[in-house]
UniProtKB/TrEMBL annotation:
Pfam families: Glycos_trans_3N, Glycos_transf_3, PYNP_C. Keywords: Glycosyltransferase, Transferase. SMART domains: PYNP_C. The active site is at residue 257. This is AMP phosphorylase. The keyword Ribosomal protein does not apply. GO terms for molecular function: 1,4-alpha-oligoglucan phosphorylase activity; AMP binding; pentosyltransferase activity. AMP binds at residues 169, 195-200, 204, 265, 289. It comes from the Archaea. Its EC number is 2.4.2.57. Catalyzes the conversion of AMP and phosphate to adenine and ribose 1,5-bisphosphate (R15P). Exhibits phosphorylase activity toward CMP and UMP in addition to AMP. Functions in an archaeal AMP degradation pathway, together with R15P isomerase and RubisCO. It comes from Methanonatronarchaeum thermophilum. NCBIfam families: AMP_phos, ARCH_P_rylase, PRK04350.1.
């Protein structure tokens, strides 16, 4: 069908051709189907979105980056031809029905994901299917290899290259901002790529972005690492394992992170940066991705097995994740808490302990400290201030302000405090409610939004004591955060006698 082009100066991922309902009906296509658009000098396939509000029945709306790609300008006539689904869409269907993919099928699927040939619907279906049906260890291995294959890699010549990665799921887990400078301050290379938030309120990339740019090419990450020993960047901006970020984009709105995709996602990024010694942080506990410790150990064994198959030494730390790490949740608040810890200021013990223990594991694996002495070495380093200096070097190398202090970091101007409804003791802090409140406040896209937990498990409170300070960049979001907190109160305050049997 021939249609007149209307160029739309928009930025949309996915659907780049917009049709009226009438045109879609006569072409026999619906929202999310694929269509080939051919102009005078070029042609390409894209997904369709429908709306009769923007385009007429003799027109096709083309998003400008797409029209540029095929050399079409406003008013040009273009030919539209519906195209079928790629083979890889059928592999998604196979996963929905619980079938296993062959190596070739998995490589084709990941290649199409990396090249954005699958629609958002198909990606969501894949994530949902794997959450329910899981994948075999062979499939996990092939997915990992394929994610590396269809992306850029770093090629270091000196080893070891160490790395750490958390499976996420516990709010406030800003430990990467401590571990990377601690480890690099001891002379090890650690080119750290992180995701943005997946199920949480702030991923490491979101937090680091408060202090410095995080979008770099693989070559730039290599150069920064050679220069200062480390980087903390957003994996999604590089062409390192690009399929991973596409999948994460589908996981975020569903708050799903199936473990088999998670293993591939984490390890592909580690292999692609050339890491040969890796520590994986597996937080377990109520409201985390892995609630049960046994399940955590099984995941650790799976990580280690895939690592062995792919020539990477992996050690896993099963860590306490039953309540948030530290007190701050949200990009700017977490950046401030991490910086405070590096500055040697008063910070929660849980943050320091976890960061030093995992840094210590890397020291022991790399052989820069003997067994059982790694944690102590990390603590000593933190005390003598070298990691703070290293962190400033990293910030500067990434284009941020190296002179920034924790006090300079701005927090959302709208503030409200959630107070204790009765006197008693805090018996638990609910991870999921904390994340939902922080998201309602605007985190992670509003960098200054988030919350500070004033009381944690075991703390005694009087009625009216502050429990959580909430911060937002916009007033209406503050109200949303408060509404969420009242709907699902995030802390449990109880007396020491929890129950009396028989009741009075
Ligand atoms: O949003 P949820 O699912 O909690 O966790 C995702 C976070 O966990 C990992 O942290 P790191 O890169 O090891 O610091 C990811 O990179 C990401 O930042
Ligand atoms: O990088 C990560 C971390 C958690 N889960 C993932 O899928 N990828």
């Amino acid at each position: 069908m021939e249609l007149k082009s209307r160029i739309l100066d928009l930025k949309i991922d996915g659907e780049k051709a917009i049709l009226s309902d009438e045109v879609a009906r006569s072409l026999g296509v619906c929202h999310g189907n694929r269509v080939r658009v051919s102009g005078k000098t070029g042609s390409a396939t894209t997904f369709i979105a429908l709306t009769s509000e923007i385009v007429g029945d003799d027109e096709v709306g083309l998003v400008s980056d797409f029209s540029d790609k095929i050399g079409v300008v406003e008013g040009d006539l273009v030919e539209l031809t519906p195209t079928g689904r790629p083979n890889s869409a059928n592999y998604v269907r196979k996963k929905i029905y619980g079938e296993f993919l062959s190596r070739e099928e998995m490589f084709e699927l990941i290649k199409d994901i990396a090249n954005r040939n699958l629609s958002n619907y198909e990606l969501s279906a894949l994530v949902t299917a794997v959450s329910i049906r899981d994948m075999s260890m062979d499939e996990v291995q092939w997915m990992t290899e394929a994610m590396v294959e269809y992306g850029d890699s770093l090629e270091f010549t000196e080893y070891p290259i160490v790395d750490k990665h958390s499976i996420g799921g516990v709010p406030g887990n800003k430990i990467t901002l401590l571990i990377v400078p601690i480890v690099a301050a001891a002379g090890l290379y650690i080119p750290k790529t992180s995701s943005r938030a997946i199920t949480g309120a702030a991923g490491t990339a979101d937090i680091m972005e408060v202090l410095a740019p995080v979008k770099f090419t693989a070559e730039e990450i290599y150069q920064i690492t050679k220069q200062v020993g480390a980087a903390i960047v957003w994996g999604g901006a590089t062409h390192i394992a690009p399929a991973d970020d596409e999948i994460i984009r589908a996981e975020y709105p569903l708050a799903l992170d199936p473990v088999s995709i998670l293993i591939a996602s984490v390890l592909a990024k580690k292999i692609a940066v050339g890491a040969d010694k890796v520590v994986i942080d597996i937080p377990v506990g109520d409201g985390t991705k892995i609630e049960d410790r046994k399940e955590g150990s099984k995941l650790a064994r799976d990580f280690i097995e895939i690592g062995e198959r792919l020539d990477m030494e992996i050690e896993c730390a099963i860590t306490y994740g039953g309540s948030p790490i530290g007190r701050a949740v949200g990009p700017a608040l977490e950046a401030r808490e991490a910086l405070k810890a590096l500055e040697g200021k008063e910070t929660p013990k849980s943050l320091i302990e976890k960061s030093c223990s995992l840094s210590g594991m890397l020291f022991e694996m790399a052989g820069t400290s003997s067994k059982d002495e790694g944690t102590e070495k990390a603590r000593e380093l933190l005390k003598n201030g070298k990691p703070l200096e290293k962190f400033k070097e990293i910030i500067e190398a990434q284009g941020g302000n190296p002179d920034i202090t924790s006090e300079d970091i701005e927090i959302g101007q709208h503030k409200e405090t959630l107070t204790a409804p009765s006197e008693g003791y805090v018996t638990s802090v609910n991870n999921k409610s904390i994340v939902n409140i922080a998201r309602a406040l605007g985190s992670p896209s509003d960098k200054k939004a988030g919350l500070e937990i004033c009381k944690k498990g075991g703390d005694e409170v009087c009625k009216g004591d502050p429990l959580i300070h909430m911060y937002a960049e916009e007033k209406w979001k503050l109200k949303e955060g408060m509404k969420e907190a009242k709907k699902h109160f995030p802390l449990r305050v109880e007396g020491i006698v929890l129950e009396r049997i028989p009741e009075l």
